Fold each of these.
Amino acid sequence: MCYDISFTSNIRHVQDYFPGLHVDPQVNIDFTSDHVQAQAYQPFPIITNNGGQLTLQPFEWGVIPDYFKTPEDVKKGRSFMCNAQSEKIIDDTRSFWRRIRQHRCLIPVTGIYEHRNVTGFKNKIPYHVQLRQRSLFCLPGLFHYSPFANKETGELTGTFTIITRAANRLMRQIHNNGPNSGRMPLFLTKELELQWLQEGLNDMQIQEILHYEMPAEEMQYYTVHTIRTTKPRPDDKRKTEPFEWLNLPELEVV
């Protein structure tokens, strides 16, 4: 469960979305990608609150926690740190996510990808899922600085995870197979996105945000060709463009 994402927009649009946003010079102002894979662990621009100043800066997807002591630990365990289950952020006192619950961030996206298992189809069917009223929106996450310093600069790499929750009635039908089926990223209203970045939230306030469920009616979706690879589509169209799968049963939602 990693939820590959798309950002087919422009950093300037994020600045319009968050007036007064400071952009770190390391962020490519023209950054865009039809397909960002979680387990590629590449830098992606996320938004943090630094003393009241919202800042867009490049962090790597996939948290590297303090209990990873060796590069081998990172190699074996990082794939499990790309998502954080919302239920473990407050309620699980032994969870690493609870320890960093005050390190909150937002990940600007234009959509997410997920697979649907359909009887009679050899491969799972990939979907691109967006919000109806917002072409750009943000997924809530948590961030943490890697305990391993960069060998060249001596700096600690910023890393992040995306928060997931139990799926709504749309995503239950799409993410319907596998060990983590029935889950989805935590989609928020614009107001809750801004609240998520407020400093000093108490556990009750954090929990209220984590309990929010985006109504299925507020989401839109369509099938795409593939998200298993970063290679271009054989028809040379963009990864985010619709692809029709013949004889595919419709989802039972509006």
Amino acid sequence: MFRGISSLNLDAKGRLAIPTKYREQLVAACSAELVITVDKDHCLLIYPKPTWLEIEEKLRSLPSFDETARFLQRLYIGNAHEIDMDSQGRILLPQELRRFADLNKKVALVGQINKFELWDETAWNSRQEAQLAKVDINKLDLPEEFKSLSI
């Protein structure tokens, strides 16, 4: 399970050091084999390879004549890159993906249970502030299963 936010730096070569607390999990779950792709929100998604393969199979099975399905396949599969974590726990982010997400030096790695989102830190902070300002949590139209949730 990946949770929490880590503020990290990309090095000059575009490498990112995965926080130590996740490294052992990633080695155990996927032998440090990851898949990284873009997201419609202009961040990057980083998956353990076995988790990605399940998603890829679902995307592959979508009807090829459906315009939305083809868009999703092109976006997620078309931009996917297999990457390996090195012995120091670093991953090299492909240049085209760094450019897509406008990643420079400071980034936010956000745990999302079965994957990570990788954001430019300024973009992440701005998005969080905008979401908090926009949403009235007392007026959300929640699905029935969430109505009994207590946090």
Amino acid sequence: MKIAVIGKGRVGSVLGPAFDKAGHDVSYGVRDANDPKYDNGDGIALKSTNDAAQWAEVVILSVDWSVTLEALEQCGDLSGKILIDCNNPLKMGDHGLELALGFDNSAAEMIDARTSAEVVKTLNQVGSPVMGMAHDYPQRPIQFVAGDHNDAKETVSGLLRDIGFDPIDYGPLTNARKLEPLAMVWIDQAFQHGMDPHKAWYLMPGKS
């Protein structure tokens, strides 16, 4: 599939090569495609945010929450496309990173209200080190997938399998209100309690 990764920070710079290695056609959408800071030698095409989004079938928003809605606007009309929201709406609090939104709203729903794309929430539940090496784990790490469009969720689930994850359907997009707090468990463990950031969640099989 043609996949536009919007942003080339910690998450985007890992997801781009992961999908490229899986055989998909990937381009980055960045603020200035001519800025040499975005060229890290990975060989993946750089386009403007709008050009990448308009070219793609699947758009992945992987920019910081503080600029997410601005980046979404730069994408333009996304009718007929799938948009993967891997954001966690974070802010700095008294004790480090914390959620900027509560349980009555989510980043995914805010994005959904501002786009004609079919929004799917996933790839927010672990850090970027896991995303680039999901195939290397003895068990496939899980990724919950939430959205209101079953066809879009099935497509995204297939993409997740391509890069090594075990996707689990987590119902409608409103369930992003639970997935974003779930991400805080991983974030707190990694940044507050010294957990190896390469650790991931997976479901152990039960006794037969």
Amino acid sequence: MEAILGPTRIGLRKWLTLLLALLCVSHFSSTYAAESAEHDSERPIIFGITPFMSPIALMQRFTALRNHLSHTLKRQVLIETASSFDEFIKRTAQRRYDLVFTSPTFSLLAVDSGYYRMAATPINAVSAQVVVSYPAPYRTIEDLAELRVATPPAQGFISLAGKELFTQNGVTGNKSPTYIPFRTHNAAYQAVLGGEADAAIISNYVLKKVHHSGIPLRVIEFSRQFPGMGVLVANSNDDRTNRLFVETMISLQRSQNGQQILQKIAFPGFRTASIEEFEPARAFMPNLKKGLH
């Protein structure tokens, strides 16, 4: 009856041995996963910021935010950038960063990689401004045909949006201006003031500072508004890290300490955002990819 209704004594011993092995494997897997999670929670969080300024200047500008994030997340946060836009895009595509702060077009590439999702963006929109010096005779973008136009780095979002204005106004082909890329927006408009260029493409953020400083520049054309920099989180981060990071970023403007940090990083504050808001920037992707090496 025993052989019919249940395992034999030999079969029972084999079954118990197999069960014990499975329990050991399960325990090992659970222990390994717990140890891995604990190890991951101890490593620094890498916050990748697109190289829109020199590495030294960028580190100095974001040190206060880094310290604040480290305190809030209860983990060391390290700011990392790259030597070029090309390198930053490659590192993002390799999931080098846990958190990312980058331009609209680079944000789309990051989300397209499958490693990241959009979390937040600055509360103020961004646009490209085509400026000339006040004494200059140019009144329309067509007047700049075949002339010299200074730009920030060619792969930067503002440069792409500004060049699109020339295309939309038929200033292309033989009429296209000579674009002269500079490392920063400031260097681009300084080229106009110094006579190295006839016009410059800069952001509305920089233009506001220019007007506040009384620098003699005049706007002759500007693009539509887009969401500013994208703040992204890696999908593989633990939920707590992503949640606290986003909460910390969007709550900066609500405290005196946070407002001081915003002044240091020169951003007005942040709000939650979706990747759909950035989709209009996808129109610039073909020109972006032409400039990548």
